[in-house]
Design a protein that fits this description.
alpha/beta, 13 strands, elongated, Rossmann fold, 356 residues, 13 helices, six-stranded parallel sheet
Amino acid sequence: MNNKPKIKIIFLLPSLVAGGAERVISFVAQSIDKEKFDPILLVAGFEKDSAYDVSNVNVIYLDKPRILTALPSIILKLIKLKPSIVVSSISHVNTAMSMISPLFRKTKFIGREATVLSKRKNEKKSRKWSPAYLLPNGFKNLDMLICQSQDMAEDMISNFEVPKHKVCVINNPISNLPPVKQKALQSDVKKFITVGRLTEVKGHARILEMLSKLKVPFKYTLVGDGGLKDEIFEKAKALAIDNHITHVPFTNKVNDYIAENDMFLQGSYVEGFPNALLESCVVGTPVIAFNVPGGTKEIVDNGINGFLVDDEETYLKRLNENREWNPKEVSDSVYQKFNKERILEQYETLFFDILK
């Protein structure tokens, strides 16, 4: 019988709204070995906003609209609960934990970054005040920073003064394993899909430009919502392809939509670790994506589960190709690298190592 005390870990998030960081952290909090760890999910926001089932972990909601207003309550919770480790995610939360970590000498603070931060500085969304952008060494008091990709790790070391020994790479896990789709019947109409926020960085506009030059009939399903919705659909109309597009603002059946299509299209200019693209491969739908900073290149194996391209000319060439893909081979290519057991083991090893 193991008499060792469990390691108490607080997983901290600003909210549980739908998002990559929220999905991954809530998954890890619920899935780590409960015989070795005592996980608590601490959420600054409100239970009513939760997009995820978190019934398999102790959850504390602070009912605050922002991390800044929740900070006094977070400090009080850390004093009361005395965790051995605090794991936070998203840059402004990580910066806040770096600022308060000197108050808790017996606690190890681990941040998890969600994007290649230096590449996102110029986005309109990111022009708001954020300590991560104003303080180049804003992560200096963290004991470790988890990055989702090698590009992200190099960005943290080069541009945010994080020492190399305080950076590790842990990819996102396949937290949901839906059935792999059957081989589709050949059709004269190509079916493409993109899943993601309708924002500038996701590159929907350049996908539309290339689709307008296609030489074959096509249908394009666009899943997601965002601030550039009107602009994107005005562009589609101007290109005279709006009648080829189906828009799905929100759905709980993303995998079903992906499985019904021939290819997943990613137009992003930068990605932290593209969960939707990974999910596409999991169900057996291959992808076409640009070779951009972030984790895309760690998922896409050229010719195995899709294509990674360097320019729009090559992208268009791949769009026009007729190629038969084996859905199981597409799925197996990512399952081997990102299955949840492998990723959870990496998290658990990190937690043990940081306490040595």
